[in-house]
């Protein structure tokens, strides 16, 4: 039998099936009977993984007999809101589910890093309170708010902000990011310490072991209510670390260089510690949150707009566009922070190697969109790597000189000599790692140099 948190995760996975033809009042099983006939949900189709998770979970009557309702797109809300309810057959248990970042919402994510509230967060609140009033939910009802990614951020925001606090029984935040200092300060001003903690204690955080989104901003989830789920994702599948269906995945058969995935209807086990990529993302987020607020706002705006452009949308849901100041803040403050977290932290260097080792970057980048960069950032990174290499080499040479000064008869089996050899081996490994990193940075910079030259030649024609 699935737990409440697992049901929340299954319903969040349903939201990524992107099926808009369901009618309010249909059971989840009835919806699945409709979609199974469509190519996109069959084996090899775009949504086959999500369909597999939901259809297997629907074997549990508690899930399969759930009734969909209050779909936001049928209530006149914008595409970004994307929410609905799922009610038990007896209507004594209701899940309010918010989908992750919708079309045009990436800039709103950036605004949430510095502002007290954002328009999309407020729309999520309006949706919830409209549904509560429409359906007449009471404190005796079991009302669970949940969401994945930005949907998880919205679920937390609604839990912390709604005037119908007594109606909210629990909140399950799946991979959802945190908030700005201003947002947290606003709640602390608005409530007594007891009420603030009471609202916060309703939130449970469930994250992929290498998820890199939920660490953005300041978390309000209690440590004793934070859990990490095993997510077997191939290193090169970066997006997969934030893909909810991989919380239900297990490696299948090997198919050439790739391994197929088998998706079940119950979540993977929890792991004791977060993974390496998550640790790197947390270090980066911590550095970003140290930036002056005005520069953080601009840097975050550029990053989020780039994410939006990858979805071919030039403006945010509410017309947000970049300013010259935003771009300047990203180049002047954002890029140095990213490079610092990648080059000067152990987690960052490890992730850098895992992502780029053995890959032909120029071949992979051919034909993709490029962002014009200020190459001084790469030059500074290369200079830092040179300085680190020089320092490591100097330490290695000093140890080597010390070792040579120790009499041969004393070195045999000596703890001192063994210690020196261990340190020399450690320094040698780090030197090799830095050399590889430097080579990759030079390769990336070289690609941009050749692109600039090609563009100049094309413009000259």
Task: Report on this structure.
The structure is a single chain. The protein contains 17 helices and ten strands. The chain has 461 residues and is α/β, with parallel strands linked by helices. It has two domains: 4-274, Rossmann fold; 373-461. The strands form two sheets. The chain has an eight-stranded mixed beta sheet, sandwiched between helices. Strand 2 (83-87) and strand 3 form a beta hairpin. The chain is elongated and about 85 Å long.
List the helices and strands and how they pair.
Layout: H1 4-15, H2 28-35, H3 48-57, H4 61-64, E1 67-69, E2 83-87, E3 93-98, H5 106-111, H6 119-135, E4 142-148, H7 150-161, E5 168-174, H8 181-190, H9 193-200, E6 203-208, E7 226-229, E8 249-255, E9 258-263, E10 270-271, H10 276-290, H11 293-310, H12 324-343, H13 346-356, H14 361-365, H15 376-405, H16 408-411, H17 415-460
Parallel strand pairs: 3-4, 4-5, 5-6, 6-7
Antiparallel strand pairs: 1-2, 2-3, 7-10, 8-9
């Amino acid at each position: 039998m699935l737990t409440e948190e697992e049901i929340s995760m299954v319903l969040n996975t349903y939201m990524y099936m992107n099926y808009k033809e369901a009618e309010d009042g249909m059971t989840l099983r009835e919806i699945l009977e409709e979609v199974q006939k469509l190519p996109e949900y069959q084996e090899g189709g775009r949504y086959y993984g999500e369909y597999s998770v939901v259809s297997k979970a629907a074997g549990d009557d508690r899930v399969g007999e759930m009734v969909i309702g209050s779909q936001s797109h049928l209530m006149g809300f914008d595409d970004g809101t994307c929410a609905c309810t799922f009610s038990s057959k007896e209507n004594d248990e209701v899940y309010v589910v918010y989908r992750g970042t919708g079309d045009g919402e990436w800039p709103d994510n950036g605004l949430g890093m510095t502002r007290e509230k954002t328009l999309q967060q407020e729309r999520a609140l309006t949706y919830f309170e409209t549904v509560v009033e429409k359906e007449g939910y009471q404190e005796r009802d079991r009302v669970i708010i949940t969401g994945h990614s930005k949907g998880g951020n919205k679920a937390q925001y609604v839990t912390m902000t709604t005037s119908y606090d007594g109606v909210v029984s629990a909140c399950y935040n799946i991979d959802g990011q945190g908030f700005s200092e201003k947002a947290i300060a606003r709640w602390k001003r608005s409530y007594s310490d007891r009420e603030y903690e009471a609202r916060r204690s309703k939130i449970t955080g469930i994250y992929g072991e290498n998820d890199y989104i939920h660490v953005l901003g300041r978390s309000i989830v209690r440590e004793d209510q934070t859990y990490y789920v095993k997510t077997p994702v191939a290193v090169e599948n970066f997006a997969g670390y934030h893909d909810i269906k991989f919380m239900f995945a297990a490696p299948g058969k090997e198919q050439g260089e790739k391994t197929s995935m088998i998706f079940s209807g119950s979540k993977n086990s929890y792991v004791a510690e977060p993974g390496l990529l998550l640790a790197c993302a947390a270090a980066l987020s911590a550095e970003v949150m140290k930036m002056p607020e005005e520069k953080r706002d601009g840097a975050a705006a550029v990053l989020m707009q780039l994410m939006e452009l990858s979805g071919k949308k030039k403006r945010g849901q509410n017309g947000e566009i970049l300013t010259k100041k935003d771009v300047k803040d990203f180049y002047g403050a954002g890029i140095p922070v990213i490079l610092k977290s990648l080059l000067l932290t152990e987690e960052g260097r490890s992730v850098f190697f895992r992502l780029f080792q053995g890959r032909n970057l120029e071949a992979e980048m051919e034909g993709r969109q490029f962002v014009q960069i200020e190459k001084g950032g790469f030059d500074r990174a290369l200079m830092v790597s040179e300085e680190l290499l020089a320092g490591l080499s100097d330490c290695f040479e000093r140890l080597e000189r010390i070792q040579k000064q120790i009499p041969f008869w004393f070195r045999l089996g000596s703890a001192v000599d063994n210690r020196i050899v261990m340190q020399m081996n450690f320094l040698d490994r780090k030197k090799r790692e830095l050399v590889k990193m430097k080579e990759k940075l030079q390769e990336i910079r070289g690609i941009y140099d050749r692109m600039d030259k090609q563009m100049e030649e094309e413009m000259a024609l």
